[in-house]
Amino acid sequence: MTQRCALITGGTTGLGEATARRLHDAGHTVLVTHMVGTGGASEWQQAQAAQGYTFKVYEVDVSDYDSCQEMARQIEADGHQVDILVNNAGITRDGTFRKMGKDKWDAVLRTNLDSMYNVSKPFVDGMTTRNWGRVVNISSVNGTKGQFGQTNYSAAKAGIQGFTKALALEVARKGVTVNSVSPGYAATSMVAAVDAEILEKQIVSQIPIGRLGKPEEIAATIGFLCSEDAGYITGANIAVNGGMHMC
Ligand code: CAA
After folding, report:
1. pLDDT, the chain, mean
2. Best mutation site among 94, 141, 188, 241 for ligand 1 pocket (most ligand atoms within 8 Å of CB)
3. SS3 244
């Protein structure tokens, strides 16, 4: 297996962390990003190292173009060429549309959708020049089916699916695949923030498999899409949602 260099945004928690570990297990060099100014990155890095996982951490704000450009310069200066990009970083600011202030709309669209441009832009040219690349964008079941209280998040996650297909067309002849993964509800801090009664009565009750997903189950799909074997899959949106929404 060829050793590649992977960059995972939001790689220090939840699905991002599980994906970082998965790609490390696959033998790749793994770089992760952590939201600038939120602290805890070096403690996380040390805890991972104690378990045999060596990650480089870059502090960046994925909603900010200049911050991403600076990160890309640093990654290059550190001698890395990013072959695998997992655009995972995302936030929720839930609330019904009636009550949703512009701040919540902007925060989610900038972090979840603008980040697709901001982070992909510095790395896709290198992939096409080298004739090999994998981009996996993390969408959501709620980008496909919509969700009460998530006009902002559903819009951004649906936008990711469109971005994925358009970019996939543009780079298909250059050895670069671009896909999205749409997780359902997984056992992460993002999902744990949903009111427990709503989670149980309105959400878990609608999952045919009858439970939340494990981050590792989502990461396994991402890992496959990043592999050599997945070279003929591009422009796809892979649902990993316990049967919650079938399409
Ligand atoms: N469908 C229809 N009506 C609903 C409803 C639903 N699913 N949920 C609530 N309502 C009704 C309520 O009964 C209430 O009706 P009345 O006004 O007649 O009493 C009305 O809608 C307003 O509801 P609330 O007062 O509860 O509204 P709120 O603003 O206080 O709460 C909310 C809204 C915080 C968004 C809450 O509904 C909620 O947490 N929903 C779940 C959001 C969710 O799934 N987030 C996912 C986060 S994790 C993630 O996003 C990861 C991923 O990719 C899957």
Report:
1. 98
2. 94
3. coil
Nearest to 196 by CA among 204, 188, 208: 204
Q: What is the DSSP letter of 112?
A: I
Predicted TM-score (pTM) of the model is: 0.97
Are 173 and 164 within 8 A, CB to CB? Answer: no
In the DSSP assignment, the letter for residue 186 is B
Pocket around ligand 1: residues whose beta carbon is below 6 Å from it? 92, 94-96, 99, 140-142, 147-150, 153, 183-185, 190-191, 194-195, 198, 202-203
The class of domain 5-238 in CATH terms is alpha beta
Confidence of residue 158 (pLDDT cuts 50, 70, 90): very high
One-letter identity of residue 42: S
- In angstroms, the CA 137 to CA 160 distance is 7
